[in-house]
Amino acid sequence: MQLVLSKDSDVPLRQQVADQIVLLITTGQLHAGDELPSVRALGRLSKVHHNTVSEAYQELVRRGWVTRRPGSRLVVGKALVRPAAGSQDLDDLINYSIQRARRMGYDLQALRLRVRERLLAEPPDHLLVVEQEAGLREIIRRELQDELGWPAHGCSYDTFAREPGLAIGAQVFVANHYVEAMKPFVSSARPPLGVVYSSAVEHIDRINRLEHPSIVSLVSVSEGVLRTAKSFFASAIGKKHVLQEVLATDESVPSLGDSDLTFCDSVTLGMVKSRNKVHYKLIAQDCFADLAASLG
C-alpha cells in the first residue's frame, strides 16, 4: 500500500494518511475485508512515525471506514445494523389478496414475505443511492442520473436500514467497498451495484503544470470530498501554491474571481463563477460502462 505524503503541507500527516487510505478504498484499490498493514509496517513504508499511523487508523475506525476484528489487524469495511424483523411496510396489499390468501390456507406472515420477495424481484424503475453523507450522496445521485439517464433518488444507510421497503422498484447503488455489507438488505435477484471513484490523477497533473505560484480552489457540496481531495492534492500544492476549500450550500453561490484553477464537483459546476473551471467528476468514467451493462 503506497501513500504519497508531504511533510511540507499544512495538512497534518495523520490526516494525509487517513484520507489517502480512504481514497484507496473508494477507488477500489482496497476492498472490503482487506487487512491494513500494521502501524509499524506502514510507518516504515511511508517514512512517518508509527504513532502518526496509529492516530490515522483510530480516525478511520471512528469514521467507519475500517473495523477492528479480534485477533486480526484492521480490515476495510464495517457491518451495517440489520433492520428490525417485521419492519417492512406492506400497506398496499389489497383486501382481496388477503381474503384469497386466507381461503387458500396461507397466513398473513407468509403472504407478507412472499409479496415482498416478488416486489423486490421486479425490474427496477429508478436508482437508489445509499450513502450516509448528504453532500456526497447528492453528487453520486446527480452523476448517475446524468450519465445513465435513469431517475435517481437517495437516502442514508440509517434510513435504508429502518425502511428496507425503499429497495422495492430500485436498483441500489453504494460505494464499492459497501457492496458486501449491503447484500443482506436487498434481493439476491438484484444485488447492489458498487460505485468506484475516480483516482483524479489528471487533476494532479493539471496542478503540476502550473508554471507560477497559483491559487487553486476546491468547491464541493461534500465535506468528505473536500477533505479527501485536500490530502490528495497536498503533494502537488506544496509550498508553491495556495489551496482554498469552499463548501457550497443552497444559499451560497461562490464567486472565485481570484482563483487561477478551480475544481468543481458535479453539483457545483453550474453554480461557480471562475475563469478557469475544471469538472471534478467523482465516479470513474469506466465505471459507468460497467454500471450501464449491469442495468441492461
UniProtKB/TrEMBL annotation:
Domain of life, per lineage: Bacteria
CDD domains named in the record: WHTH_GntR
Alphabetically ordered keywords of this record: DNA-binding, Transcription, Transcription regulation
One example GO MF annotation: DNA binding
One Pfam assignment: GntR
Transmembrane segments: none
Domain HTH gntR-type: 11-79
Protein name as it appears in the record: DNA-binding transcriptional regulator YhcF, GntR family
Organism this protein belongs to: Terriglobus roseus
Organism lineage string: Bacteria, Pseudomonadati, Acidobacteriota, Terriglobia, Terriglobales
